[in-house]
Amino acid sequence: MFGKKKPIPQIDKDQLELIENAQKRIKQKKGLYAHFVIFLIGAIFLIVANTVLGIGKDFKILEIDWFVFAILIWLFLFVYHLFNVFVTNKFMGKDWEKAQLQKLVAKQQNRIEKLKAGLVKEETILAKSEVFKEETTKPINKGSELTIIVAAAENNAIGLGNKLIWHLSDDLKRFKALTNGHHIIMGRKTFESFPKPLPNRTHVVITRQEDYSAHAGVIVVHSLEDAIDAARKDSNPYIIGGGQIYKQAMAIADKIELTRVHENFDADTYFPEIDTNVWKETANTFHTKDETHAHEFSFITYTRK
Ligand SMILES: NC(=O)c1ccc[n+]([C@@H]2O[C@H](COP(=O)([O-])OP(=O)(O)OC[C@H]3O[C@@H](n4cnc5c(N)ncnc54)[C@H](OP(=O)(O)O)[C@@H]3O)[C@@H](O)[C@H]2O)c1
Q1: Where are the domains of the chain?
Q2: What value does the mean pLDDT take over residues 259-274?
Q3: What is the pLDDT of residues 32-64, one digit of tens each?
Q4: Where, by residue number, does the polypeptide cross the bilayer (predicted)?
Q5: 227 lines ligand 1 (CB under 6 A)
Q6: At residue 302, what are phi and psi to the nearest 5 degrees?
Q7: CATH of domain 147-304
Q8: Per-residue pLDDT reduced to its tens digit, 228-251
Q9: With a 6 A CB cut-off, is 190 part of the ligand 1 pocket?
Q10: H/E run at residue 275
Q11: What residues form DSSP beta bridges with 57?
């Protein structure tokens, strides 16, 4: 129990692998040697059986004794065995498999690196385009407070058949009071929904039509950025609609003066959803129904957070 332990010889992994390999090769060569001996004895037996014992003496293929073919087939099998031992197993053994595997792994890694590089490139392009978007949607000339003014239903409906859906006189009065003396920026369709330009306001109409002509004094531009640029001397220009222009202006406006009509309506034009992560409600006044107002509504002011 307390006697000295015999030291156990330690062999490292590489040595063990070499020994295992050598043993395998010895086994393969022994097998080949055995095959050779059996082939020799077998060949002699076939020759004796045919020539001495006369077995199948009359059976010939193309005038050649059958044992010649039997020996040739056996010889082919022996050569195949020989090839396996000295070529296939020697050069395509474990090391060869390992090397092939490493090559494949390296190839795959290379592909992964290329894909990664492609992704980084794509991200950079996307990031650049975001910056570009930001640069183009935030006009350089905007030195004033840009306000969106709109009346929208609970379901964000704002228009149907290029007309307003309701008539709320206090809402119109508020619109008049707020926009009086200012630039009012609008899409071509909203402009055309007016019987005539509104008094005491500078109309800026956005259209893609190069030859669009409007009444004298109406400024015609071909983009929202140009509209804001045209109103740069105004400390508080208003975006007055419609749906297409509101959608584009949401990203650049500083304020929203919303009249929320507390009902749902059928419409073909809608106001975009107001994201409360971006917009903060700063004022809210409720208005009941009465003889001149068929619907309840609230005046709500939002400012950009
Ligand atoms: N409830 C409210 O407070 C309120 C306020 C205003 C309007 N509305 C309603 O809204 C409806 C109209 O809105 P909508 O969306 O149909 O039309 P819109 O926004 O008034 O005008 C659209 C037109 O503006 C021009 N346009 C738009 N984006 C442009 C850009 N980036 N560059 C150059 N031109 C551009 C195009 O004109 P061209 O086709 O000439 O190129 C386009 O067809 C009507 O029903 C109206 O009554 C409601």
Answers
A1: 14-92, 147-304
A2: 98
A3: 999 999 999 999 998 998 888 888 888 888 888
A4: 32-55, 67-87
A5: no
A6: -120, 140
A7: 3.40.430.10
A8: 999 999 999 999 999 999 999 999
A9: yes
A10: none
A11: none
Distance 240 CA to ligand 1 centre (A): 10
How many beta carbons lie within 10 A of that of residue 139, not counting itself? Answer: 18
* Highest mean pLDDT pick, 25-29, 45-49, 120-124, 276-280: 276-280
- With a 6 A CB cut-off, is 189 part of the ligand 1 pocket? yes
Q: Ligand 1 centre and the CA of 205: distance in Å?
A: 9
Ligand 1 centroid, distance to 144 Cα (angstroms) = 23
| Mutation pick for ligand 1 pocket among 149, 172, 189, 261 (CB with most ligand atoms within 8 Å) | 189
Q: What phi and psi, each to the nearest 5 degrees, are found at residue 206?
A: -100, 130
Selection from 183, 296, 297 nearest residue 237 by Cα: 183
Does ligand 1 come within 6 angstroms of the Cβ of 165? no
Residue whose CA lies nearest to ligand 1 atom number 12: 242
What pLDDT, in 10s, does the model give residues 68-102? 998 999 999 999 998 988 888 777 777 777 778 88
Give φ, ψ of 13 to 5 degrees.
-60, -40
Q: Which atom of ligand 1 is nearest to the CA of 212?
A: 40
**Chain centroid, CA 30 distance in Å:** 61
What secondary structure does DSSP assign to 2-42, as a single string?
Answer: -SPPPPPPP--HHHHHHHHHHHHHHHHHHHHHHHHHHHHHH
Is 212:218 a contact under the CB 8 Å cutoff?
no
| Non-local CB neighbours of 281 within 8 Å, separated by 6+ positions | 300, 301, 302
237 CB within 6 A, ligand 1: no
CA of residue 173 to ligand 1 center, whole Å: 22
Q: Which residue has the tokens 């709320």?
A: 168
Q: How many CB atoms lie within 10 A of CB 136?
A: 10
Tokens in use for 86?
């000295």
Comparing CA positions, the residue from 270, 222, 231 lying closest to residue 146 is 231
Distance separating alpha carbons of residues 82 and 57, to the nearest angstrom: 32
